[in-house]
Write a structure and sequence with these properties.
Strand content: 25-35%
Helix content: 25-40%
Radius of gyration: 47 Å
Number of strands: 38
Structural class: alpha+beta
Number of helices: 28
Largest sheet: 7 strands, antiparallel
Length: 949
């Protein structure tokens, strides 16, 4: 018995068992209701227990409740008086909503007639009857069930007692049986050969078409013995491999429209085939199914037609002349090829009729009459020599004129003639275009900025254009008397020799026609002054009719400017790519840091400062703060840090940092401060000035071994249109320059080219230095770029380094940042704050903070939940405190929607990365209340009070 038959037998046995259990349960229930049973004997693990039904109502109820079938009692008006737990589970509806309801609420509308018929039958007789109906679960999903009903009297009151049996499994079994029978019928009646193999590759089922295919029975035979089928290898149309059933059972599938079966008599049939593994319900492969269609007749017919059509089409397509087939009587064309249309320049329908042909091709009446008389006279003579006409001018549909030669070949016994036409203007036009081209390219060669030259195969220059003087400083006359070896290094010359030799061999080794081989290479050539000029050379090796390489024709381009632009572009793309990564990392990192900082700070508030645990928590807080600084560096590098710029005096801001900077760099390094006089104001976030100074000064400190000096200066700079070329990104305008110089070890060119790349550091190579993160100067680059500035770097090994930061001057009204005084943490007065935060840990932590500060908090984990809360509490909400980046919608859209409904709500945003949702290029919009994650309780208290006003 195979697997499918075993499954079918199991299904049938399960159905029979279900029916027996249903009948037994119904008999027991009827006996209980009729009073025929005085007691129940229940088998338990402790032994048989006897329950008296007259004295053990509780036991009777327990029995009903534990039934694996539904028990329902209905009043005469069809209300549910009682239902057991199975009914609750079956309908997925609580019992309290079932009891007291009309039972017809739970019956499918299409089955109501059958249900009422069942109850009416009980009104007429006492025998139990049953009906199959569909019950409706809470989700509306129909549940197939069998209802057995009988009418009984409880304390002389008539009621309906029903037993409900879940038929879902039974229906599924019936469906599987039907599907099994359908599959058998499909296989039996299919005109295609259908073969089913078991996991051993033995044929366990096959229809008649399969037996016909191999001309004998294939049942119980290994597939590889019964069928010798070859499938096409798609990588090579002419390669076929034997279909191996074991590969299909192992999981491979085959779909081939080019399969073949080989018979013992040597004959092959063509097949269209698909083979795939067959799995059971558990997904275990139990065999394979192969579907085969015999397409031999179709393939042979197609082959015959293809050969005939290809033969005719090949003749027509390869004719180098236009061809038409015409009737002898009136000249009407029955066939015109494409070349005929192309030469005359008219569609075929305009050339078929003789009159239309003359009218279109010869629009001038006099010339038309001349050609008509001449052609008709020549045709009437029957002289084949006279039916060949040369130098005929024809007019195309677009008005252009061509010179053609035409010929008619009559086939008198077939009553038609073949007309041919050839375009004779091509050679003349080619000669004319050649002269025009020579003149055009001469002018191009003389006026192009690229250097064009021709060399013989020994690399002697035979022609150069005027651009050689601009590029290399030689006149054309001077340059043409030199060899390529005179203008490049020996190694470069040998590489070029090798390349030209390989290309020459490739183009002259077997070509029958003259041609050329292209070559492209880059090299440094020397100018007249000895300067290295990087060039890109596009050349061609010209091969003559004797298949001999005759010359080199080259176009040479100065790529110095292009190389510079490409280097800048690669740097910009690299910074942008890593910037996107850094912004995303900082966002997730800030969420985690917010939780760490918040809970640590709140835990410390509950401990005395002399408590040992207080010091431990303080270390955690310090580490988290340092991690926050790293996150801010990432955001600054990525130019995605949300900043609140103010107008400030750069000299005053730096002066306030000098003590802190001196502590950072140590006492062995002298700090010189030279502020510029009457320095213009700039507009920046003061915290960014801190980051710039700390990163630059620490970088200088690490470059100094032992005693050294760091100088900080400021000054005003005005750039004209000719801004310094060595400062990448410079532009005209007025700027404040901030310079940080040191007398440290300096940098070589390679290091200077990479210092602003994230994670690039040389500090691990310096003795006594810790390995750097490589984010310091990348952060400086990000801050300066974010604020519209640019950076210049001057450094050489052993000569120290100078960083010059150019920050744009503020041209608007002055409004400086005020120093924040140390004040007590402001507290709320019970105001209601709607907190929206998709990170649950952050939401819980911020809720605790706000409640400790005296606010009433309504917390939502998503914008949709926030709208539901606002509907109930909108009038009492004072502040919406929302995260910026969230699923469903961002914080700004949430705020705009809530304000449209509740205009009095104040809005405050929080985020570790705003992604320009509430800021433009990282700068906060005017009037936006914002707090940067991670934040302390003091920061939160101050910002909330600012939002409340």
């Amino acid at each position: 018995m195979n697997t499918a038959e075993r499954q079918l037998a199991q299904i049938r046995e399960e159905n029979a068992q279900l029916r027996r259990e249903l009948e037994e349960a119904q008999d027991a229930l009827n006996a209980i209701y009729s009073g025929e049973v005085d007691a129940l004997v229940v088998n338990t693990s402790a032994g048989d227990q006897i329950f008296s039904l007259q004295s053990a109502d509780y036991s009777y109820r327990l029995l009903i409740e534990s039934m694996q079938e539904g028990a329902v009692t209905l009043s005469e008006d069809k209300s549910v008086l009682y239902a057991n737990k199975f009914v609750e589970k079956l309908l997925d509806i609580p019992l309290e909503k079932i009891i007291g309801s009309q039972f017809i609420r739970f019956v499918h509308e299409a089955d109501l007639d059958g249900f009422f018929s069942l109850l009416r039958q009980q009104d007429l007789e006492n025998d139990s009857a049953a009906a199959e109906v569909r019950l409706l679960s809470r989700s509306g999903r129909p549940v197939p069930a069998r209802i057995s009903a009988s009418r009984i009297f409880l304390e002389n009151i008539p009621v309906y007692s029903m037993v409900v049996t879940d038929l879902s499994m039974h229906k599924r079994h019936e469906q599987m049986l039907a599907e099994e029978q359908l599959s058998r019928n499909i296989i039996r009646q299919s005109v295609n050969a259908i073969i089913v193999c078991d996991e051993r590759g033995v044929v366990i089922r096959a229809n008649q078409a399969a037996s016909d295919l191999i001309r004998s029975s294939c049942l119980n035979l290994p597939f590889r013995e019964a069928f010798h089928i070859y499938v096409n290898d798609s990588t090579s149309p002419d390669q076929f491999e034997l279909l191996r059933i074991e590969k299909v059972i192992a999981g491979e599938t085959y779909h081939s429209s080019e399969a073949r079966i080989h018979h013992e008599d040597g004959e092959d049939d063509y097949l269209s085939l698909s083979a795939s593994p067959m799995a059971d319900d558990a997904g275990q492969v139990i065999g394979a199914v192969i579907n085969i269609a015999d397409i031999s007749l179709q393939k042979r017919t197609e082959q015959v037609l293809r050969e005939q059509n290809d033969y005719i089409q090949t003749i027509v397509d390869n004719l180098p002349i236009g061809l038409a087939v015409r009737y002898l009587e009136d000249g009407t064309a029955t066939y015109i090829n494409k070349r005929f249309e192309e030469i005359y320049g008219w569609p075929a329908e305009d050339l078929r009729n003789t009159e239309m042909f003359y009218d279109h091709v010869y629009p001038d009446p006099a010339y038309r009459q001349y050609m008509r008389s001449r052609i008709e006279a020549d045709r009437a003579s029957g002289d084949l020599e006279r039916m060949y006409w040369k130098n005929i001018e024809v007019t195309r549909k677009d008005g252009t004129r061509r010179i053609v030669s035409a010929k008619n070949i009559p086939i008198f016994n077939q009553n038609f003639m073949i007309s041919t036409v050839q375009d004779d203007t091509q050679q003349a036009a080619a000669e004319r275009k050649l002269k025009e081209s020579e003149e055009k390219y001469r002018l191009i060669a003389e006026n192009t900025v690229d250097c064009i030259w021709i060399m013989d195969m020994d690399f002697n220059f035979t022609f150069v254009n005027q651009a050689v003087q601009t590029m290399f400083g030689y006149t054309p006359e001077e340059f043409v008397c030199t060899n390529l070896r005179d203008h490049c290094g020996e190694e470069t010359f040998r590489e070029l020799q090798k390349l030209v030799g390989e290309k020459s061999l490739g183009v002259t080794g077997g070509r029958a026609e003259p041609g050329y081989a292209e070559l492209v290479f880059e090299a440094d050539l020397r100018s007249r002054t000895g300067e290295a000029v990087p060039v890109e050379i596009h050349g061609a090796i010209i091969v003559d009719a004797d298949k001999k390489a005759s010359s080199l024709q080259c176009v040479t381009r100065d790529v110095r400017e292009r190389n510079s632009f490409e280097q800048q572009l690669r740097q910009a793309q690299k910074m942008e790519a890593v910037g996107r990564l850094a912004g995303g990392v900082a966002h997730d990192y800030n969420n985690m840091l917010s939780v760490i900082l918040g809970y640590t700070e709140m835990a410390m508030d509950q401990l005395a400062k002399d408590d040992p645990l207080y010091n431990d928590l303080n270390e955690v807080l310090s580490a988290a703060n340092r991690s926050r600084d790293i996150t801010r560096q990432l955001l600054a590098f990525a130019r995605k840090q949300t900043i609140a710029p103010v107008v400030l005096d750069l000299n005053k801001t730096i002066s306030g940092m000098l003590n802190m900077i001196q502590h950072l760099i140590g006492e062995d390094i002298a700090l010189d401060w030279s502020p510029g006089e009457e320095l213009p104001w700039i507009r920046m976030d003061p915290s960014q000035i801190d980051q710039l100074m700390v990163n630059l000064c620490i970088n200088s400190r690490d470059a100094i071994e032992g005693i050294g000096r760091i100088a900080i200066t400021t000054s005003r700079k005005q750039f004209s249109e000719s801004a310094p070329a060595d400062i990448v990104g410079s532009r005209p305008g007025e700027f404040v320059m901030l310079s940080v110089s040191d007398n440290g070890c300096g940098m070589d060119q390679e290091t200077r080219d990479n210092i602003f790349e994230p994670f690039y550091t040389t500090k691990g190579a310096l003795p006594g230095r810790n390995q750097g993160t490589g984010l310091g100067l990348a952060t400086v680059y990000g801050i300066v770029s974010q604020n519209g500035g640019f950076i210049g770097v001057a450094s050489n090994p052993g000569e120290g380094t100078t960083f010059r930061l150019y920050l744009p001057v503020y041209a608007g009204n002055l409004q400086t940042a005020s120093d924040e005084d140390e004040i007590e943490i402001p507290r709320g007065c019970g105001e209601t704050i709607l907190l929206v935060e998709d990170d649950r840990a952050n939401m819980q932590m911020t809720t605790i903070m706000l409640e400790k500060l005296g606010y009433r908090v309504l917390a939502a984990n998503a914008p949709r939940e926030a709208f539901r809360i606002a509907e109930k509490n909108g009038s009492s909400i004072k502040v919406l405190l929302t995260d910026v980046i969230m699923p469903e919608m961002n914080g700004r859209d949430l705020a705009e929607n809530l304000i449209s409904l509740y205009p009095e709500i104040m809005i405050m945003f929080m985020s570790g990365y705003t992604a320009d949702v509430i800021a433009h290029h990282g700068v906060l919009d005017e009037g936006v209340h914002f707090i940067q994650k991670p934040f302390s309780m003091r920061d939160l208290a101050v910002r909330v009070q600012e939002a409340i006003g």
